[in-house]
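Hey, resending since the last one bounced:
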Amino acid sequence: MKTYLVTGGSGFIGSNYIHYMFEKYQNNIHIINVDCLTYAGNPENLTAIENRSNYTFIKEDICNKDAIHEIFQKYDIDRVVHFAAESHVDRSIRNPQVFVSTNVMGTLNLLDAAKCAWETEEGYKEDKKYLQVSTDEVYGSLDDEGGYFYETTPLDPHSPYSASKASADMLVKSYIDTFHFPANITRCSNNYGAYQFPEKLIPLIINNALLGKKLPVYGDGKNVRDWLYVKDHAKAIDMVMEQGKPGEVYNVGGHNEKQNIEIVHLIIQTLSELLPENDSRREHLNQNLIQYVEDRKGHDRRYAIAPDKIKAEIGWEPETMFAEGIRLTIQWYLENQEWMAHVTSGDYQKYYAEMYK
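The structure tokens again:
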């Protein structure tokens, strides 16, 4: 049985990854979820698996170096999947220090602990692997039309968030190059799906539209992102972990480029189709809710990932096109209004703060 250390497993992508892994491997793996439960970490994302005998939750901050080393001493970790990160660009503009602390120093602590636990006189213990989950934002911005991010594209981050993730990637690369550390880096496009915190575009628009609130759109709304369904991302991470060539970087993209304003219109349309005819919330669903707001500082114009390498070397490609994925996502939020209410009210934080104090 392989033991996985998953950092940030109570967050959006981390929790979806954990669900995917248990669906695939059942009782053949042990997952240790290390999460310090900031606002973005919600144990409600994992209530369906929290009582499994092969699941362990540890409330801890990756910035606590001693605690991270103790976890590696206590458990024989085979795999590290590092999701834990401060990830919201607007928050990074307001408070860059937190992003540097978590995303850079936290990553260094994790690398150091894994290296110490896995290193032998002959090299590293057999079948150990570390995977750094990164973002396409480290590449900077593309022109409105044409061009893609490749693994060879120079890093050119434009926000404190993306700069901190690029720095973390460089630390991982330095461990690979200097210490021959067994690691890979994946860089994904924008994820969407279940359990996403509603400060992000898609859940924010869904929730506001249902409540009849304004739908804020930055600038002219024509910023383009490549959207990746989170379950496809979870599958890619698993495949890179098991099949990726040591030391390699793999871009994980969805082939779903959309302008932000297109997404807003599509959400309004899809909600109109999914809500029952007698649902009073249908009254809110019109374009008048859209409100253009001042553009974000350093707002990158376009991201587009080329996943050619991961397809050629590993055989992964996105399976969920955006029209299908956004419908599944909206349906999930409609069926999980209590989860959304707990998140937007902050009740989940109060409950788990008491539980884990």
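The CA atoms of residues 156 and 271 lie 37 Å apart.

Sorry for the duplicate.
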